[in-house]
TrEMBL record, chain A:
<dbReference type="GO" id="GO:0009316">
    <property type="term" value="C:3-isopropylmalate dehydratase complex"/>
</dbReference>
<dbReference type="GO" id="GO:0003861">
    <property type="term" value="F:3-isopropylmalate dehydratase activity"/>
</dbReference>
<keyword id="KW-0100">Branched-chain amino acid biosynthesis</keyword>
<comment type="function">
    <text>Catalyzes the isomerization between 2-isopropylmalate and 3-isopropylmalate, via the formation of 2-isopropylmaleate.</text>
</comment>
<keyword id="KW-0028">Amino-acid biosynthesis</keyword>
<keyword id="KW-0432">Leucine biosynthesis</keyword>
<dbReference type="InterPro" id="IPR004431">
    <property type="entry name" value="3-IsopropMal_deHydase_ssu"/>
</dbReference>
<comment type="similarity">
    <text>Belongs to the LeuD family. LeuD type 1 subfamily.</text>
</comment>
<dbReference type="Pfam" id="PF00694">
    <property type="entry name" value="Aconitase_C"/>
</dbReference>
From TrEMBL, chain B:
<dbReference type="Pfam" id="PF00330">
    <property type="entry name" value="Aconitase"/>
</dbReference>
<feature type="binding site">
    <location>
        <position position="408"/>
    </location>
    <ligand>
        <name>[4Fe-4S] cluster</name>
    </ligand>
</feature>
<keyword id="KW-0432">Leucine biosynthesis</keyword>
<comment type="pathway">
    <text>Amino-acid biosynthesis; L-leucine biosynthesis; L-leucine from 3-methyl-2-oxobutanoate: step 2/4.</text>
</comment>
<keyword id="KW-0004">4Fe-4S</keyword>
<comment type="function">
    <text>Catalyzes the isomerization between 2-isopropylmalate and 3-isopropylmalate, via the formation of 2-isopropylmaleate.</text>
</comment>
<feature type="domain" description="Aconitase/3-isopropylmalate dehydratase large subunit alpha/beta/alpha">
    <location>
        <begin position="7"/>
        <end position="455"/>
    </location>
</feature>
<dbReference type="InterPro" id="IPR050067">
    <property type="entry name" value="IPM_dehydratase_rel_enz"/>
</dbReference>
<keyword id="KW-0028">Amino-acid biosynthesis</keyword>
Length: 198, 464
């Protein structure tokens, strides 16, 4: 489905400096039983966020009111494991519009791009600097500029550029999605189908 | 220009290339299940679109299905609703549907090959990361998100940049007691859970040439666990023998034409990979995982590594061991086990149950172990009965359940309780993967069988 345009985003950020955060942690399988895509934010990081009796785990970052914002900063290899797009939906539904990490798992990154959440890959050094800055001052803001492909830590002015292919960038800036594009080339696809041996 | 196997299959499916953007990749076969497809149908209906080629999509119920009393209505209303939604969508758009109780039902990645949906040189996708299984046949097969499921339904295409290419060769001969699962877990332990991210892997060398088709499926299945988009093996006579005559493979002249194409599907001698890695078969022993991602595996006779000796941060490593209730330098042999699960798209095929039977035959299930034996499909279940394996299992105190994904992801009632340890032949040992608070030790069917009869982590070579 088409989604919100993404141009620039200036926000405080939520730090989650754990490596190899898999999509089973982002949204556990038992919460995948819906047939619509709304409401997954309630169960984002469910088992890290809540005890078995549904009381909040006080030491988990999403339960700490000083950390908030539209940017989630994760550890290396964020989003590994299952292809469930529900993980990206949960991130979006909770209110994040951008996930920052020094390394992303492939499918999660792709799923984010397909629903309008911007994955921003940065160097490990910059990642460390961002974590330190947020822990020093939770009001630290990050500025993400998609047009310029830059992410800036406003407190220090440190900035890095990030990669995104031109096509996906255009989609995000304009709020288009792949189906809009694919629909426009249907006759080409039909011709291709005729050439398939099986 | 010289091409790899991957290049040959990928390039022949590119409908259009976008400069500074992805390829428009044509998809030959599309598998759907009840969990990741409903929202795709909602999406296409909200746009007023339909399914372009329903004959290229195959619906199978597996993730949510109970593994006992499948003839009765599904008790969980949410699961029942997802299963019904899959059936309704399939019926509405004329898509083949193998639901609960259908003779061909089972785990989507088991029934695809069994029924000849999977063929060499094809592009195969499914909203499930273990779609990489089908790469065993020389297909490009990988998991996609639900947005992409919608794309395939409406246009038979997805848009993805072409991944880089990696070749992993394992040469030599595997020792007795070392299975394809051990080969997969060994490779992941060496590459880490992100070591192949951005790549599509080709497996090559003696070990894969000599491996059965089912073994190749196990290895390709695990490709995603090192971050690879998928993994594939060049088709050979073993491949063609496996698929010939299956219900959905080409027949007659169609077979001959297909064979002409399939026989070209190998990497050219001078083709170049972005990365090449080689291992020696003699370095691999039965594997077991001790942590909370599939890269945290080791030879079963070793001790748990120290944080200093593994890649990654100490905080994450400590968190992982704390979750498992283990400590650095401990040995895994002798660790108490509560549950054993044999099944899943990784190890739910007949050869896996034969391996399990080879150890439990003439022995008894340990009293402290709850065991779930879950065939990958009804066809596997029937073979277990035909070959007399069921008698062996029952004599040893085991019960055979009905097919489905089951405790691999514990969406149904097959959940390992919090704090309990499970030796599992599945593919993921993430926190809570087999139920909230569950602790998973990934291993081969032989290691699972050894644990099931002894009640502790045991080297299966002592029981062979």
């Amino acid at each position: 489905m088409a989604y919100d345009k993404f141009t620039t985003l200036t926000s405080t950020a939520v730090p989650l400096p754990i490596e190899n955060v898999d999509t089973d942690q982002i949204i556990p399988a038992r919460f995948l039983k819906a047939t619509t895509r709304e409401g997954f934010g309630d169960n984002l990081f469910r088992d890290w966020r809540y005890n078995g009796d549904n009381t909040p785990k006080k030491d988990f970052v999403l339960n700490n009111p000083i950390y908030k914002g539209k940017i989630l900063v994760g550890g290396k290899n964020f989003g590994s494991g299952s292809s469930r797009e529900h993980a990206a939906w949960a991130v979006y539904d909770y209110g994040f519009r951008c996930v920052v990490s020094s390394f992303f798992a492939d499918i999660f990154k792709n799923n984010c791009l397909n629903i309008g959440v911007l994955p921003v890959q940065i160097s490990p050094e910059f990642s460390n600097e961002i974590f330190e800055a947020i822990y020093a001052d939770a009001n630290t803001e990050l500025e993400v500029n998609l047009e310029k492909q830059t992410i800036t830590l406003l407190s220090s002015g440190t900035s890095e550029s990030f990669d995104i292919n031109g096509y996906k960038k255009g989609n995000m800036l304009n709020g288009f999605d792949d189906i809009d594009y694919l629909q426009s080339m249907k006759s080409e696809i039909e011709t291709f189908t005729e050439s398939r041996p099986f | 220009m010289s091409k790899t196997l991957f290049d040959k299959v990928w390039d022949s499916h590119v409908v259009r290339n976008i400069a500074d953007g992805p390829d428009i990749l044509y998809i030959d076969r599309h598998l759907i299940h009840e969990v990741t497809s409903p929202v795709a149908f909602v999406g296409l209906e909200s746009r007023g679109l339909s399914v372009l080629y329903p004959e290229r999509t195959f619906a199978v119920a597996d993730h949510n299905t109970p593994t006992i009393n499948q003839h009765l209505p599904v008790e969980d209303p949410l699961s029942a609703n997802q299963l019904k939604t899959l059936e309704d969508n399939a019926n509405k758009y004329g898509i083949s549907h193998w639901g609960l109780g259908h003779a061909n039902n089972g785990i989507v990645h088991v029934v695809g090959p069994e029924n000849g949906i999977t063929v060499p040189g094809a592009t195969i996708v499914c909203g499930d990361s273990h779609t990489s299984t089908h790469g065993a046949f020389g297909a490009i097969a990988f998991g996609i998100g639900t947005s992409e499921v919608e794309m395939v339904l409406t246009t038979q295409c997805i848009m993805q940049p072409k991944p880089k290419k990696m070749r992993i060769s394992v040469n030599g001969t595997l020792y007795k007691g070392v299975t394809p699962k051990d080969v997969g877990l060994y490779i992941i332990s060496k590459l880490t859970t992100s070591g192949a991210t951005g790549y599509f892997v080709e497996y090559a060398g003696d070990v894969f040439e000599n491996m059965s088709m089912e073994g190749r499926m196990t290895v390709c299945n695990l490709s995603i666990e090192m971050g690879a988009r998928g993994g594939m093996i060049a088709p050979d006579d073993k491949t063609f023998d496996y698929i010939k005559g299956r219900p959905k493979t080409p027949k007659g002249a169609g077979w001959d034409t297909a064979m002409e194409y399939w026989s070209t599907l190998k990497t050219d001698d001078d083709a170049v990979f972005d990365k090449e890695i080689t291992f020696d078969a003699n370095d691999i022993e039965p594997m077991i995982t001790y942590g909370t991602n599939p890269g945290m595996g080791m030879g079963i006779s070793n001790n748990i590594p120290t944080a200093e000796s593994v890649e990654g941060g100490k905080a994450t490593y400590d968190k992982s061991l704390a979750y498992m209730g283990y400590a650095e330098n401990e040995q895994m042999i002798g660790k108490k086990i509560d549950y054993v699960f044999i099944g899943s798209c990784t190890n739910g095929r007949i050869e896996d149950f034969r391996a399990f039977a080879s150890i439990v035959k003439g022995r008894k299930k340990a009293d402290n172990v709850t065991a779930w034996l879950v065939p990958g499909s009804h066809i596997v279940e029937a073979k277990i009965k035909e070959e007399g394996l069921l008698d062996i299992f029952e004599e040893a105190g085991f019960v055979l359940r009905e097919p489905g994904c089951s405790a691999c992801l514990a969406m149904n009632d097959d959940k390992v309780p919090a704090g309990k340890y499970a030796v599992s032949t599945s593919n993921r040992n993430f926190e809570g993967r087999q139920g909230p608070g569950s602790r998973t030790l990934l291993a081969s069917p032989l290691v699972a069988a050894a644990a099931a009869v002894t009640g502790v982590v045991t080297d299966p070579r002592e029981l062979l």
